[in-house]
Each structure stands twice: as C-alpha cells, then as structure tokens.
Design brief:
By secondary structure, the chain is an alpha+beta fold. The protein is built from four helices and seven strands; from the N terminus they run ααβαββαββββ. A five-stranded mixed beta sheet has the order 3-2-5-7-6, covered by helices on one side. The protein is elongated. The model is unreliable at 1-24 (pLDDT under 50).
Length: 142
C-alpha cells in the first residue's frame, strides 16, 4: 500500500505540473528553432537606448518551417517592430509545424558607455534570450 501511495505522490509531483496547469501555455520556442539570426542591439535601437522585455508568439506554418504569423508584444514599440522584422526570417523544425511557440527577449543596457553597439547573448531556460549591451556614449550637439 505504501509503494502505491508513493508512486501516486511522485506522479503528482513530477507529471501533474505539465498536465494540471489551469491556463494554456505555449511551448518554449527555443527547441523549435532550426535557424535564426539572434536579434542583437541594432544601431537604431541602441542609439534610442531601448531596454525592456518582449514576448514573441510565433505560429509555425505547415510547410518549409517558416512563420505563418509573428505577434510581438512589448511596452517598447521600437522593440516590437525590430523583433517582428527579424523573426519573420527565422526557420523552424518541421516537427514544430502548425504549433504556436513563445520566445521571450530581455534587452538590457548596462555598464560603461561605448562608441558602437556590441551585443552579448545569454539563453535563459526555458524560453528567454537575454541581449546585453553597454549604452551609447552621450552625444553633445554644439
């Protein structure tokens, strides 16, 4: 009897979180990527000193692993248009066809100012890409 109770308890702890979630979740998009240019700080985004979070919901088409739709949400409008333009060119695995996946982005400006943008990337499980850069050197207009 104790073995059965233990097995049920283990199943509840390890399996139920995936099955028992009340709200629908989108699978992590990172495991579906076949090829994607990492969207580092583009010069315009960097010069505008944009920092913040964005979430991309990508519906993968049923052929050729291309996105059927890309919906980017962020409080930073420049991040929305920048990321959408980059993500439409991504390619996804055929095994992920007809799925909607989520990839999250976190753009961070920190450290001493630099003359040119140099992005560093960090993957954060399960579905986040963190993009870090130093802020631009302030320009003084005469």
């Amino acid at each position: 009897m104790n073995i059965k109770l233990g097995a049920i308890l283990l199943l509840t702890i390890f399996v139920c979180p995936a099955w028992c979630a009340d709200e629908p979740t989108h699978p992590s998009g990172l495991e579906c990527i076949d090829e994607m240019e990492l969207p580092g700080y583009a010069r315009l985004v960097w010069l505008a000193r944009v920092a913040g979070k964005a979430s991309a919901l990508i519906t993968i088409g049923h052929s050729a692993g291309t996105p059927a739709s890309v919906d980017v949400r962020s409080e930073q409008p420049l991040l929305v248009s920048f990321l959408k333009a980059r993500l439409v060119n991504a390619r996804f695995l055929g095994s992920c066809a007809d799925r909607t996946i989520e990839i999250r982005f976190n753009y961070v400006l920190a450290g001493d100012p630099e003359e040119e943008p140099h992005s560093e990337f960090k993957l954060l499980a399960p579905d986040t890409i963190e993009v870090r850069a130093r802020p631009p050197v302030p320009r003084v207009r005469p």
